[in-house]
Amino acid sequence: MAEVTGRAEKERQAELPPVPDHLERGLQVVFIGFNPSLRSGELGHHYANPRNRFWRILHRAGLTPRLYEASEDGELLKLGYGFTNIVARPTRGIEDIARPEYAEGRRALKEKLERYRPQVACFVGKGVYTEFTRKPKAEWGFQDGFEPAVDGVREFVAPSSSGLVRMPMEEIVGIYRQLREGLEAD
């Protein structure tokens, strides 16, 4: 029975289209995730899982003037924020992403950053950053002590907004607030 359920889950994942990127030249920040959740794939919007705290974090950190919903993700282009992922395919979790997908995703993400040239590439999770850069570890915040993957694009590492993250919400919001403060200082 578990094998049948697993096969049905894989078929469901394979049927979901990628969540479209929201990118344009000259953005302040591009938020980069691992890949969309199944719920995001079903709805076609970034950070659409109701257990994901992304939208609340942005608002509480002062990055957005009000609390946005996932269905409004394209509206954040007006604020200078864009969205993409290392892997475009929606999955139940990162354990469902194959190694070749990461290799292709790294190449595609670098091309996107070179093409659109945001001021900051914000990696939503340390794992996203280390997977992209191939660096063994990262600290929270701006990665100013390291050579950026794309010249002229600052890199910022923020905690994942997943509801599975055990870090206290105020600590997560404080790290995202550093992003806001860095943008204001530029």
From TrEMBL:
GO terms for molecular function: pyrimidine-specific mismatch base pair DNA N-glycosylase activity; uracil DNA N-glycosylase activity. Keywords: DNA damage, DNA repair, Hydrolase. This is Mismatch-specific DNA-glycosylase. Coiled coil: none annotated. InterPro entries: MUG/TDG, Uracil-DNA_glycosylase-like, Uracil-DNA_glycosylase-like_sf. Gene3D superfamilies: Uracil-DNA glycosylase-like domain. Residues 22-168 form the Uracil-DNA glycosylase-like domain. The lineage of its organism: Bacteria, Bacillati, Bacillota, Bacilli, Bacillales. GO terms for biological process: base-excision repair, AP site formation.
